[in-house]
Amino acid sequence: MCACVCVCRKPIQCGDYVRLTHLQTNRNLHSHHFQSPLSGHFEVSAFGENGVGDSGDNWEVVCSSKSWRRDNKVQFKHVDTNLFVQVTGSKFNRPIAGQYEVSSQSSSSTNSQWKAAEGIFIKMIKK
Question: pTM for this one?
Answer without folding.
Answer: 0.80
